Amino acid sequence: MTTINVIDAPCGYGKTSWAIQYMNDMSVESHRFIYVTPFLEEVTRIQQSVHSRKFHDPESIKGETKLDDLHRLLGQGKDIATTHALFQKANAETKELIRSNNYTLILDEVINVIEQVPLKKNDLDLLIEARVIDYEINDKGLTYIKWNENKADYDTEYNHIKQMALANNLMYCDNSALIWNLPCDIFLMFKDVFILTYLFKGQFQRYYYDLHGILYRYLSVVKDQHGYSLVPYQNRQIHDKTFLNKLVSIYEGQLNAIGDKRNALSTSWFEKPSNKDFVATLQRNAYNFFTNLCKAKNDTAIWTTVIGNKNSIMKKVKPKGFAKCFIAMTTRATNLYREKYHLSYLINRFMNPIEKKFFEQYGVTVDQDAWALSELIQWVWRSRIRDGKPIEIYIPSSRMRGLLKKYLSSDFFEEPPENAIVDEPPSDWHL
């Protein structure tokens, strides 16, 4: 059974450089790769950086979908570089083609492995009463939604649910919600799997592996005169944060008063009509921080907050003159903002309560703070801090600010999960 290789190391340690070196070094006879990244720009980077083999990016051509093209390329045993969005569409055919062609997966950054399926209050009751769906508990005690095979050709508003259920991708949560779940056995179809990430401990993909009983081995990257290599996590180079502490200037002052309460600046806080005056204050504070305290300009600043329905919250929060500096709070794995050094993080991150409950109902313990911190770090590291240059940051949420300070002053968040394998070399014997 495949054990996942999690290369958990800070931004700038050379995870992508290692991956490029690995794909260049391995013989085209022995290795076939699928490289999956969040952004098309990174697909191009891989195509340009790996010289020993040609990477193909699936396209939609002549009325065929990108998934069709992916299947064609897999069937031909080609090396493939593609996006998270396409990988999430994988189905039974994808899995079989991966398995029979002996592929290695390199996953740049964790992927969305579960998502709550939007439903109206009584949709579920309606589908059950009409005997369109039913529940099935598998041998691990996990509850899946099954579509009635006799109604497989029905064309309804619920076609998206039908497709997920027929592909065995739909799970049940807490008597009230449906959760789309990337079919976990796809990871077991690869010869080897490498995930390039940081602070995996707090991320949904880790909890998803725990839920499905998939083992993962923690590794880190080291560099010497011969290039990059992987080492067991227990032999990693401990992240010295002394220098980092000098680079990160966290605003302390009166503008933080708005975020003193634990839930202040959470999504539900923004959505409460009674907080509209506080939202106006937050907007003024962010403007004040950028304009008066930092003398920031459009080419030095980035900020984020909750987007809201039709961008409604984002528009209320946007600091005057800095509308174009917004980047989504989920942004990761891109270098587009590496010149920026004035940051405003106007949000207090909590997991979607249904998704959190989904894991907990099956006995998987989740750590909200480790998750929130990993999301914050990913966002902050889009800036020039990744190049070892100083930044100034405004984090009005006292909870989020406290998490960043704890991260900067300890190794607490880098301790591996208890069930991670930390003392083994990577699974590919060529390494």
Task: Write up this protein.
The protein contains 15 helices and 17 strands. By secondary structure, the protein is an alpha/beta fold. It is globular and about 60 Å long.
Mean pLDDT: 93
Oligomer: single chain
- Adjacency order of strands in the biggest sheet: 3-4-2-5-11-1-12-13
Low-confidence stretches: none
The domain count comes to: 3
CATH class of the largest domain: Alpha Beta
Would you summarize the structure shown here?
32% of the residues lie in helices and 19% in strands. With 431 residues, it is α/β, with parallel strands linked by helices.
Which features characterize this protein?
Rossmann fold; 8-stranded mixed beta sheet; 431 residues; 19% strand; 4-stranded parallel beta sheet; 32% helix; alpha/beta; globular; single chain; 17 strands; 3 domains
Show the helix and strand layout.
Blueprint: E1 4-8, H1 15-25, E2 32-37, H2 40-49, E3 55-56, H3 66-75, E4 79-83, H4 84-87, H5 92-100, E5 103-108, E6 114-116, H6 123-129, E7 133-137, E8 143-147, H7 159-166, E9 170-173, E10 177-181, E11 192-197, H8 204-212, E12 216-224, E13 227-232, H9 242-247, E14 248-250, H10 267-271, H11 276-293, E15 301-304, H12 312-317, E16 342-345, H13 353-360, H14 368-380, E17 391-394, H15 398-409
Parallel strand pairs: 1-11, 1-12, 2-4, 2-5, 3-4, 5-11, 14-17, 15-16, 16-17
Antiparallel strand pairs: 6-10, 7-8, 9-10, 12-13
